[in-house]
Input
Amino acid sequence: MQSFKYYAPTHVVFGPETEQQVGKLVKKYGGTKVLVHYGGGSVVRSGLLDRVCKSLEAEGIAYVKLGGVVPNPRVSLVREGIELCRKEGVDFLLAVGGGSVIDSMKAMSVGVPYKGDVWDFYTRKAFDKECLPTSCVLTIPAAGSEMSDGSVITNDEGGLKKDYCIDEFRCKFSILNPVLTYTLPAWQTACGATDMMMHTQERYFSKDDDMDITDNIAEASIRTVMNSVKIVLKEPENYRHRAQLMWAGSLMHNDLTGCGTSGDWATHNLEHELSGMFDVSHGAGLAALWGSWARYVLNENPTRFARFAVNVLGVQNDFNDTIGTALRGIEKMEEFYRSIGMPTNIKELIGKDITDAEIEEMADKCSNYGTSTVGALKVLTREDMVNIYKMAR
Ligand code: NZQ
Ligand code: ZN
Output
Protein backbone atom coordinates (compact mmCIF):
# COMPACT_ATOMS: atom_id res chain seq x y z
CA MET A 1 0.00 0.00 0.00
CA GLN A 2 1.37 3.40 -0.97
CA SER A 3 1.23 6.42 1.30
CA PHE A 4 -0.89 9.11 -0.28
CA LYS A 5 -2.12 12.66 -0.26
CA TYR A 6 -5.80 13.22 -1.07
CA TYR A 7 -6.58 16.80 -1.99
CA ALA A 8 -10.01 17.54 -3.44
CA PRO A 9 -10.70 21.18 -2.55
CA THR A 10 -13.32 21.87 -5.24
CA HIS A 11 -16.70 23.11 -4.05
CA VAL A 12 -19.19 20.96 -5.99
CA VAL A 13 -22.75 22.15 -6.54
CA PHE A 14 -24.85 19.34 -8.03
CA GLY A 15 -28.40 19.25 -9.38
CA PRO A 16 -30.92 20.80 -11.78
CA GLU A 17 -30.66 24.55 -12.46
CA THR A 18 -27.52 24.90 -10.35
CA GLU A 19 -25.95 27.05 -13.09
CA GLN A 20 -28.12 29.86 -11.77
CA GLN A 21 -25.78 30.03 -8.78
CA VAL A 22 -22.75 30.97 -10.88
CA GLY A 23 -22.84 34.68 -10.09
CA LYS A 24 -23.08 34.12 -6.34
CA LEU A 25 -20.28 31.55 -6.39
CA VAL A 26 -17.94 33.78 -8.39
CA LYS A 27 -18.58 36.50 -5.83
CA LYS A 28 -17.98 34.10 -2.94
CA TYR A 29 -14.58 33.20 -4.40
CA GLY A 30 -13.56 36.82 -5.00
CA GLY A 31 -13.99 37.21 -8.78
CA THR A 32 -14.69 40.73 -10.03
CA LYS A 33 -13.86 40.41 -13.74
CA VAL A 34 -14.52 37.04 -15.32
CA LEU A 35 -13.42 35.41 -18.56
CA VAL A 36 -16.23 33.09 -19.67
CA HIS A 37 -14.65 30.40 -21.84
CA TYR A 38 -16.62 27.99 -24.02
CA GLY A 39 -16.40 25.63 -26.98
CA GLY A 40 -17.80 25.28 -30.46
CA GLY A 41 -21.37 26.33 -29.82
CA SER A 42 -23.33 23.68 -27.91
CA VAL A 43 -23.68 26.04 -24.92
CA VAL A 44 -24.89 28.84 -27.20
CA ARG A 45 -27.50 26.60 -28.83
CA SER A 46 -28.75 25.24 -25.49
CA GLY A 47 -29.11 28.72 -23.99
CA LEU A 48 -26.73 27.80 -21.14
CA LEU A 49 -24.24 30.56 -21.98
CA ASP A 50 -27.01 33.16 -21.76
CA ARG A 51 -28.19 31.84 -18.41
CA VAL A 52 -24.65 31.91 -17.03
CA CYS A 53 -24.09 35.47 -18.23
CA LYS A 54 -27.41 36.60 -16.71
CA SER A 55 -26.40 35.08 -13.39
CA LEU A 56 -23.13 37.07 -13.47
CA GLU A 57 -24.99 40.25 -14.42
CA ALA A 58 -27.45 39.73 -11.55
CA GLU A 59 -24.50 39.93 -9.15
CA GLY A 60 -23.00 42.93 -10.95
CA ILE A 61 -19.96 40.96 -12.08
CA ALA A 62 -18.23 42.15 -15.26
CA TYR A 63 -17.20 39.56 -17.82
CA VAL A 64 -15.73 38.98 -21.26
CA LYS A 65 -16.41 35.92 -23.41
CA LEU A 66 -14.06 33.74 -25.43
CA GLY A 67 -15.46 30.78 -27.35
CA GLY A 68 -14.02 28.48 -29.98
CA VAL A 69 -12.34 25.76 -27.92
CA VAL A 70 -12.14 22.56 -29.98
CA PRO A 71 -11.86 19.00 -28.65
CA ASN A 72 -8.13 18.38 -28.08
CA PRO A 73 -7.82 22.10 -27.20
CA ARG A 74 -5.13 24.08 -28.98
CA VAL A 75 -2.40 26.22 -27.46
CA SER A 76 -3.06 28.95 -30.06
CA LEU A 77 -6.44 29.78 -28.49
CA VAL A 78 -4.90 29.59 -25.01
CA ARG A 79 -2.38 32.25 -26.06
CA GLU A 80 -5.19 34.41 -27.45
CA GLY A 81 -7.08 34.02 -24.17
CA ILE A 82 -4.04 34.99 -22.11
CA GLU A 83 -3.70 38.23 -24.07
CA LEU A 84 -7.41 38.94 -23.65
CA CYS A 85 -7.26 38.35 -19.88
CA ARG A 86 -4.30 40.71 -19.53
CA LYS A 87 -5.92 43.41 -21.69
CA GLU A 88 -9.24 43.19 -19.84
CA GLY A 89 -7.85 42.84 -16.30
CA VAL A 90 -9.56 39.48 -15.76
CA ASP A 91 -9.13 38.07 -12.23
CA PHE A 92 -11.32 34.92 -12.40
CA LEU A 93 -11.86 32.23 -15.04
CA LEU A 94 -15.05 30.32 -15.75
CA ALA A 95 -15.27 27.41 -18.21
CA VAL A 96 -18.70 26.51 -19.58
CA GLY A 97 -18.30 23.17 -21.32
CA GLY A 98 -16.37 19.91 -21.17
CA GLY A 99 -12.83 18.82 -20.45
CA SER A 100 -11.41 20.65 -23.45
CA VAL A 101 -12.82 24.00 -22.36
CA ILE A 102 -11.79 23.43 -18.74
CA ASP A 103 -8.25 22.42 -19.75
CA SER A 104 -7.91 25.43 -22.03
CA MET A 105 -9.05 27.65 -19.13
CA LYS A 106 -6.52 26.04 -16.77
CA ALA A 107 -3.72 26.70 -19.24
CA MET A 108 -4.75 30.34 -19.41
CA SER A 109 -4.86 30.53 -15.62
CA VAL A 110 -1.17 29.67 -15.32
CA GLY A 111 -0.23 31.55 -18.48
CA VAL A 112 -1.59 34.97 -17.48
CA PRO A 113 0.90 35.66 -14.64
CA TYR A 114 3.80 33.98 -16.50
CA LYS A 115 6.21 36.09 -18.54
CA GLY A 116 7.18 33.39 -21.06
CA ASP A 117 5.15 31.19 -23.45
CA VAL A 118 2.49 29.03 -21.80
CA TRP A 119 3.64 25.95 -23.79
CA ASP A 120 6.78 25.95 -21.56
CA PHE A 121 4.69 24.34 -18.79
CA TYR A 122 3.61 21.49 -21.04
CA THR A 123 7.19 20.79 -22.17
CA ARG A 124 8.53 20.95 -18.60
CA LYS A 125 10.59 24.06 -19.29
CA ALA A 126 8.68 25.97 -16.60
CA PHE A 127 7.08 24.81 -13.36
CA ASP A 128 5.27 27.88 -12.01
CA LYS A 129 2.26 27.37 -9.79
CA GLU A 130 0.89 30.89 -9.66
CA CYS A 131 -2.57 30.80 -11.25
CA LEU A 132 -5.71 32.84 -11.61
CA PRO A 133 -8.62 31.10 -9.83
CA THR A 134 -10.67 28.73 -12.01
CA SER A 135 -14.21 27.31 -11.99
CA CYS A 136 -16.63 25.57 -14.34
CA VAL A 137 -20.13 24.69 -15.38
CA LEU A 138 -19.66 21.15 -16.70
CA THR A 139 -21.62 19.95 -19.73
CA ILE A 140 -20.15 16.48 -20.33
CA PRO A 141 -19.07 13.87 -17.80
CA ALA A 142 -15.81 12.46 -19.12
CA ALA A 143 -12.40 14.01 -18.53
CA GLY A 144 -12.93 14.68 -14.82
CA SER A 145 -11.12 17.99 -15.23
CA GLU A 146 -13.78 19.66 -13.06
CA MET A 147 -12.02 18.21 -9.99
CA SER A 148 -8.64 17.09 -11.32
CA ASP A 149 -5.25 18.78 -11.16
CA GLY A 150 -4.56 18.27 -14.87
CA SER A 151 -4.76 20.18 -18.12
CA VAL A 152 -4.05 18.56 -21.49
CA ILE A 153 -3.23 20.84 -24.43
CA THR A 154 -2.34 20.20 -28.07
CA ASN A 155 0.21 22.29 -29.91
CA ASP A 156 -1.15 23.26 -33.31
CA GLU A 157 2.33 22.87 -34.72
CA GLY A 158 3.36 19.19 -34.83
CA GLY A 159 0.26 17.80 -33.09
CA LEU A 160 2.04 17.33 -29.77
CA LYS A 161 -0.46 16.71 -26.98
CA LYS A 162 0.95 17.22 -23.48
CA ASP A 163 -0.28 17.60 -19.92
CA TYR A 164 0.62 19.81 -16.99
CA CYS A 165 -0.65 18.87 -13.52
CA ILE A 166 -0.58 21.08 -10.41
CA ASP A 167 -2.94 21.33 -7.46
CA GLU A 168 -3.42 25.02 -8.24
CA PHE A 169 -5.39 23.91 -11.35
CA ARG A 170 -8.16 22.47 -9.19
CA CYS A 171 -11.33 24.48 -9.67
CA LYS A 172 -12.63 26.66 -6.83
CA PHE A 173 -16.11 25.49 -7.70
CA SER A 174 -17.69 23.17 -10.24
CA ILE A 175 -21.36 23.22 -11.14
CA LEU A 176 -22.74 19.83 -12.16
CA ASN A 177 -26.26 19.83 -13.56
CA PRO A 178 -27.03 16.44 -15.14
CA VAL A 179 -29.88 17.96 -17.19
CA LEU A 180 -27.25 19.84 -19.22
CA THR A 181 -25.97 16.50 -20.50
CA TYR A 182 -29.29 15.44 -22.10
CA THR A 183 -28.20 17.01 -25.40
CA LEU A 184 -24.99 14.99 -25.65
CA PRO A 185 -24.72 12.90 -28.82
CA ALA A 186 -24.50 9.14 -28.19
CA TRP A 187 -20.88 9.12 -29.39
CA GLN A 188 -19.78 11.73 -26.84
CA THR A 189 -21.75 10.01 -24.08
CA ALA A 190 -19.97 6.72 -24.81
CA CYS A 191 -16.53 8.35 -25.16
CA GLY A 192 -17.09 10.08 -21.84
CA ALA A 193 -18.08 6.87 -20.05
CA THR A 194 -15.03 5.08 -21.47
CA ASP A 195 -12.72 7.87 -20.33
CA MET A 196 -14.06 8.01 -16.78
CA MET A 197 -13.82 4.22 -16.42
CA MET A 198 -10.29 4.36 -17.72
CA HIS A 199 -9.29 6.99 -15.14
CA THR A 200 -10.09 4.38 -12.51
CA GLN A 201 -8.62 1.45 -14.47
CA GLU A 202 -5.33 3.37 -14.76
CA ARG A 203 -5.21 3.57 -10.98
CA TYR A 204 -6.51 0.04 -10.38
CA PHE A 205 -3.97 -1.84 -12.50
CA SER A 206 -1.10 -1.27 -10.18
CA LYS A 207 1.31 -3.46 -8.30
CA ASP A 208 -0.13 -2.17 -5.03
CA ASP A 209 -3.19 -4.37 -4.68
CA ASP A 210 -3.64 -4.34 -0.94
CA MET A 211 -5.99 -1.39 -0.43
CA ASP A 212 -9.42 -3.01 -0.32
CA ILE A 213 -11.39 0.16 0.32
CA THR A 214 -9.95 1.74 -2.82
CA ASP A 215 -10.40 -1.41 -4.89
CA ASN A 216 -14.01 -1.78 -3.82
CA ILE A 217 -14.81 1.86 -4.61
CA ALA A 218 -13.08 1.46 -7.98
CA GLU A 219 -14.92 -1.72 -8.94
CA ALA A 220 -18.30 -0.34 -7.90
CA SER A 221 -17.69 2.90 -9.79
CA ILE A 222 -16.84 1.08 -13.02
CA ARG A 223 -19.87 -1.21 -12.70
CA THR A 224 -22.08 1.82 -12.10
CA VAL A 225 -20.83 3.59 -15.21
CA MET A 226 -21.23 0.44 -17.33
CA ASN A 227 -24.82 0.12 -16.20
CA SER A 228 -25.79 3.79 -16.47
CA VAL A 229 -24.23 4.45 -19.86
CA LYS A 230 -26.23 1.63 -21.42
CA ILE A 231 -29.41 3.15 -20.04
CA VAL A 232 -28.77 6.73 -21.12
CA LEU A 233 -27.81 5.62 -24.62
CA LYS A 234 -31.41 4.38 -24.89
CA GLU A 235 -32.96 7.09 -22.72
CA PRO A 236 -30.92 10.30 -23.10
CA GLU A 237 -33.18 12.19 -20.69
CA ASN A 238 -33.01 9.69 -17.84
CA TYR A 239 -32.06 12.04 -15.00
CA ARG A 240 -31.12 9.36 -12.51
CA HIS A 241 -28.58 7.71 -14.78
CA ARG A 242 -27.24 10.95 -16.27
CA ALA A 243 -26.65 11.97 -12.65
CA GLN A 244 -24.82 8.74 -11.78
CA LEU A 245 -22.53 9.28 -14.75
CA MET A 246 -21.88 12.89 -13.93
CA TRP A 247 -20.88 12.27 -10.34
CA ALA A 248 -18.90 9.16 -11.31
CA GLY A 249 -16.87 11.20 -13.78
CA SER A 250 -15.73 13.53 -11.01
CA LEU A 251 -15.06 10.87 -8.39
CA MET A 252 -13.20 8.64 -10.82
CA HIS A 253 -10.59 11.29 -11.54
CA ASN A 254 -10.33 13.35 -8.35
CA ASP A 255 -7.83 10.77 -7.00
CA LEU A 256 -10.35 8.99 -4.73
CA THR A 257 -9.98 5.78 -6.71
CA GLY A 258 -6.20 5.97 -6.53
CA CYS A 259 -5.66 6.31 -2.78
CA GLY A 260 -2.99 3.78 -1.85
CA THR A 261 -2.09 2.68 -5.39
CA SER A 262 0.73 3.94 -7.58
CA GLY A 263 -1.26 3.99 -10.83
CA ASP A 264 -0.11 3.17 -14.33
CA TRP A 265 -1.33 5.72 -16.95
CA ALA A 266 0.35 4.02 -19.92
CA THR A 267 -2.91 3.75 -21.90
CA HIS A 268 -3.49 7.48 -21.45
CA ASN A 269 0.03 8.36 -22.53
CA LEU A 270 -0.21 6.11 -25.57
CA GLU A 271 -3.63 7.56 -26.43
CA HIS A 272 -2.53 11.18 -26.23
CA GLU A 273 -0.30 10.50 -29.23
CA LEU A 274 -3.27 9.08 -31.15
CA SER A 275 -5.52 12.06 -30.47
CA GLY A 276 -2.58 14.42 -31.03
CA MET A 277 -1.86 12.91 -34.46
CA PHE A 278 -5.36 12.03 -35.71
CA ASP A 279 -7.54 14.48 -33.71
CA VAL A 280 -9.83 11.66 -32.52
CA SER A 281 -11.99 11.66 -29.38
CA HIS A 282 -9.87 10.81 -26.34
CA GLY A 283 -12.30 8.21 -24.91
CA ALA A 284 -12.51 6.35 -28.21
CA GLY A 285 -8.72 6.34 -28.48
CA LEU A 286 -8.50 4.74 -25.05
CA ALA A 287 -10.96 1.99 -26.00
CA ALA A 288 -8.96 1.30 -29.17
CA LEU A 289 -5.79 0.69 -27.16
CA TRP A 290 -6.80 -0.76 -23.80
CA GLY A 291 -7.23 -4.42 -24.80
CA SER A 292 -3.82 -4.51 -26.48
CA TRP A 293 -2.15 -2.80 -23.54
CA ALA A 294 -3.86 -5.21 -21.12
CA ARG A 295 -2.76 -8.33 -23.00
CA TYR A 296 0.78 -6.95 -23.28
CA VAL A 297 1.19 -6.30 -19.53
CA LEU A 298 -1.06 -9.07 -18.14
CA ASN A 299 1.79 -11.23 -16.85
CA GLU A 300 2.98 -8.47 -14.51
CA ASN A 301 0.00 -9.09 -12.21
CA PRO A 302 -2.40 -11.77 -13.53
CA THR A 303 -4.32 -12.04 -10.25
CA ARG A 304 -5.17 -8.35 -10.52
CA PHE A 305 -6.60 -8.80 -14.00
CA ALA A 306 -8.48 -11.92 -12.85
CA ARG A 307 -9.98 -10.01 -9.92
CA PHE A 308 -11.09 -7.29 -12.33
CA ALA A 309 -12.63 -9.92 -14.63
CA VAL A 310 -14.62 -11.46 -11.80
CA ASN A 311 -15.62 -8.39 -9.76
CA VAL A 312 -16.26 -5.94 -12.58
CA LEU A 313 -17.18 -8.04 -15.60
CA GLY A 314 -18.85 -11.00 -13.91
CA VAL A 315 -16.47 -13.61 -15.35
CA GLN A 316 -16.63 -17.02 -13.66
CA ASN A 317 -13.40 -17.46 -11.69
CA ASP A 318 -11.37 -20.46 -12.83
CA PHE A 319 -9.07 -20.91 -9.85
CA ASN A 320 -6.90 -23.33 -11.86
CA ASP A 321 -6.39 -20.84 -14.65
CA THR A 322 -5.76 -17.28 -13.49
CA ILE A 323 -4.47 -16.14 -16.88
CA GLY A 324 -7.53 -17.63 -18.62
CA THR A 325 -9.85 -15.81 -16.22
CA ALA A 326 -7.94 -12.59 -16.77
CA LEU A 327 -8.05 -12.95 -20.57
CA ARG A 328 -11.80 -13.56 -20.51
CA GLY A 329 -12.12 -10.31 -18.57
CA ILE A 330 -10.19 -8.38 -21.22
CA GLU A 331 -12.41 -9.89 -23.94
CA LYS A 332 -15.55 -8.94 -22.00
CA MET A 333 -14.29 -5.40 -21.56
CA GLU A 334 -13.79 -5.13 -25.31
CA GLU A 335 -17.26 -6.58 -25.91
CA PHE A 336 -18.61 -3.87 -23.65
CA TYR A 337 -16.77 -1.13 -25.58
CA ARG A 338 -18.22 -2.44 -28.85
CA SER A 339 -21.70 -2.59 -27.31
CA ILE A 340 -21.60 1.17 -26.67
CA GLY A 341 -20.17 1.95 -30.10
CA MET A 342 -16.51 2.30 -29.19
CA PRO A 343 -13.68 1.03 -31.41
CA THR A 344 -11.37 -1.68 -30.10
CA ASN A 345 -8.52 -1.14 -32.55
CA ILE A 346 -6.82 1.76 -34.30
CA LYS A 347 -8.25 0.98 -37.73
CA GLU A 348 -11.80 1.29 -36.42
CA LEU A 349 -10.77 4.48 -34.62
CA ILE A 350 -9.18 6.38 -37.51
CA GLY A 351 -11.00 4.69 -40.38
CA LYS A 352 -7.86 3.51 -42.18
CA ASP A 353 -4.76 1.39 -41.69
CA ILE A 354 -2.11 3.12 -39.61
CA THR A 355 1.34 3.02 -41.22
CA ASP A 356 4.57 1.81 -39.63
CA ALA A 357 5.97 5.34 -39.99
CA GLU A 358 3.02 6.79 -38.05
CA ILE A 359 3.51 4.20 -35.30
CA GLU A 360 7.22 5.03 -35.07
CA GLU A 361 6.41 8.74 -34.87
CA MET A 362 3.89 8.21 -32.06
CA ALA A 363 6.39 6.08 -30.14
CA ASP A 364 9.05 8.76 -30.63
CA LYS A 365 6.77 11.43 -29.22
CA CYS A 366 5.47 9.24 -26.39
CA SER A 367 9.00 8.31 -25.29
CA ASN A 368 10.51 11.75 -25.94
CA TYR A 369 12.62 10.17 -28.65
CA GLY A 370 13.58 7.14 -26.59
CA THR A 371 14.63 9.11 -23.52
CA SER A 372 11.65 8.36 -21.26
CA THR A 373 9.25 5.56 -20.38
CA VAL A 374 5.53 5.38 -19.51
CA GLY A 375 3.55 3.05 -17.25
CA ALA A 376 4.27 1.50 -13.88
CA LEU A 377 2.60 -1.92 -13.76
CA LYS A 378 4.99 -2.63 -16.61
CA VAL A 379 7.39 0.15 -17.46
CA LEU A 380 7.11 0.62 -21.22
CA THR A 381 10.11 1.55 -23.32
CA ARG A 382 9.88 2.97 -26.83
CA GLU A 383 10.06 -0.59 -28.20
CA ASP A 384 7.14 -1.69 -25.99
CA MET A 385 5.12 1.30 -27.25
CA VAL A 386 5.70 0.25 -30.86
CA ASN A 387 4.68 -3.32 -29.98
CA ILE A 388 1.43 -2.19 -28.34
CA TYR A 389 0.52 0.17 -31.20
CA LYS A 390 1.15 -2.70 -33.62
CA MET A 391 -0.99 -5.09 -31.56
CA ALA A 392 -3.77 -2.47 -31.59
CA ARG A 393 -3.57 -1.58 -35.28
O1 NZQ B 1 -17.56 22.43 -28.38
P1 NZQ B 1 -19.01 22.18 -28.14
O2 NZQ B 1 -19.90 22.73 -29.18
O3 NZQ B 1 -19.42 22.58 -26.75
O4 NZQ B 1 -19.23 20.58 -28.29
C1 NZQ B 1 -18.60 19.63 -27.44
C2 NZQ B 1 -17.47 18.88 -28.13
O5 NZQ B 1 -17.65 18.82 -29.50
C3 NZQ B 1 -19.58 18.53 -27.16
N1 NZQ B 1 -20.42 18.79 -25.99
C4 NZQ B 1 -20.01 19.02 -24.72
N2 NZQ B 1 -21.07 19.13 -23.91
C5 NZQ B 1 -22.18 19.00 -24.69
C6 NZQ B 1 -21.75 18.78 -26.01
N3 NZQ B 1 -22.64 18.59 -27.03
C7 NZQ B 1 -23.95 18.62 -26.72
N4 NZQ B 1 -24.41 18.79 -25.46
C8 NZQ B 1 -23.57 18.98 -24.42
N5 NZQ B 1 -24.03 19.10 -23.16
O6 NZQ B 1 -18.79 17.39 -26.87
C9 NZQ B 1 -17.59 17.47 -27.61
C10 NZQ B 1 -16.44 17.01 -26.74
O7 NZQ B 1 -16.17 17.94 -25.73
P2 NZQ B 1 -14.80 17.86 -24.93
O8 NZQ B 1 -14.76 18.98 -23.96
O9 NZQ B 1 -13.66 17.74 -25.88
O10 NZQ B 1 -14.93 16.45 -24.18
P3 NZQ B 1 -14.23 15.85 -22.93
O11 NZQ B 1 -14.82 16.36 -21.68
O12 NZQ B 1 -14.19 14.42 -23.17
O13 NZQ B 1 -12.72 16.43 -22.95
C11 NZQ B 1 -11.72 15.80 -23.71
C12 NZQ B 1 -10.38 16.46 -23.44
O14 NZQ B 1 -10.00 16.31 -22.07
C13 NZQ B 1 -8.68 15.77 -22.01
C14 NZQ B 1 -8.64 14.89 -23.23
O15 NZQ B 1 -7.33 14.53 -23.58
C15 NZQ B 1 -9.30 15.77 -24.27
O16 NZQ B 1 -8.40 16.73 -24.77
N6 NZQ B 1 -8.47 15.12 -20.71
C16 NZQ B 1 -8.31 15.93 -19.65
C17 NZQ B 1 -8.06 15.43 -18.38
C18 NZQ B 1 -7.88 16.33 -17.23
N7 NZQ B 1 -7.81 17.62 -17.44
O17 NZQ B 1 -7.76 15.88 -16.07
C19 NZQ B 1 -7.89 14.00 -18.15
C20 NZQ B 1 -8.37 13.15 -19.27
O18 NZQ B 1 -7.69 11.92 -19.21
C21 NZQ B 1 -8.21 13.71 -20.63
O19 NZQ B 1 -6.90 13.47 -21.13
ZN1 ZN C 1 -8.79 10.43 -19.84
Observations:
- The mean pLDDT is 97.
- Residues 39-43, 71-72, 97-101, 103, 139-140, 142-145, 148, 150-152, 180-181, 183-184, 188, 192, 195, 253, 268, 282 surround 5,6-dihydroxy-NADP (ligand 1) (CB under 6 Å).
- Residues 212-234 form the longest helix (23 residues).
- The longest strand covers residues 33-38.
